[in-house]
Amino acid sequence: MNKYLFLPLAVLCIYATAPAEAQPRLPRIPSNLVNTQKLIKNIKIPHIPIPSIRPHTLPPVIQHLAHTPEIAVKETALGLQAPIRATVLPLRETVSEFAGLAEPFTATSFVIAEELEGKKYLWGVTAAHIARLMSAYPAVWLEDYAPFPVEFAAIGNAGMLDLALFQLPEDWPHDIPALKLSGETPKPGEKTYSFGFFNNDFFLVPHREIKEVTPNRLITSLEFNTTERGGACGGPILNQQGEVVGVHIGSSDSKKISFAVPAAEIRRMLQAYHNKGQSLQPLLFNGQKIGELNVNESIARIRTVTDGYITGDFVTYHQEKDVDYAHLETLSPDADPDEVHIFISHQMFSYTDKTEKDFFIQLTYNVASGKTTRKIISHLPY
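Above: the chain's sequence. Below: its structure in token form.
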């Protein structure tokens, strides 16, 4: 059976109260390292020790990318190009079923740094739908190095917070830099650019104008001379200072615009990782708090009911940019209903937690009483 036909729908859970503050967790080496190395050997990929990189020399991946013809960019300062290119890396599967394939599935990831308790930790960033699509044994691939097995430590909900984080080991080549997250949201009209692996080839898209900014999405132009962009998701979108402003997660059917998760949500994912998977977003309808949404949760559907009749029914699929958690009333033509029904999908936050499951939830908010009820359901309503 083709596993790509059944990408799980993101499912989210609402928590009535925020959990107690937890102590930060420090990144650790992936638990599947040994098993992945065995798989790598089984498919005849030689495992070689990670070599030390001498100061003031470029890793082979930078030397390789510096001579890639698709990378020519006039709009980007030359001093930014090599380090930015070096930190954008292919994320590939390593399971044995791909042993006979010349081109296994490749997605895009990039490296960021986190300062925690006086120490610096490196994280890889990609899209949540990529993490959920891949097998249990993904790896980051570097030119002339053995693959680095990775384990997804924090996965958002692909229905909205489409981000995933994986930890990089301590023996990661120290001359491969980390990208800086921008502290500002870009404005419409601002020029950006991006890197990504489009159909296994490394490309730069130099002309990406910010078209629209919404609470959960950046919408940009995407003028690229190919109709096939498989693998580009998970790549960074950068401002003219070389800072990450968003993460590419997909494009429109017309291939003229693309969608990105704002960089601020990466910080929220890190916060959730250090707080036992919790970073809650309040849900407001006409200014009234009717629930909360975690990073691994998204609203799949919202209905309003008046006098027993459905007066509004909004499905969020492919409409994510219109969702504002602080103003859910804007999603229904009935701004003063008797009841509000919110259908939520909940997904596992981390593959390391074997106890967590995927499921659906229905929240029912009674406007007159101001009370919200919550129940687990088997499927979304039609």
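The chain has three domains: 3-9+19-181, 191-263, 280-377.
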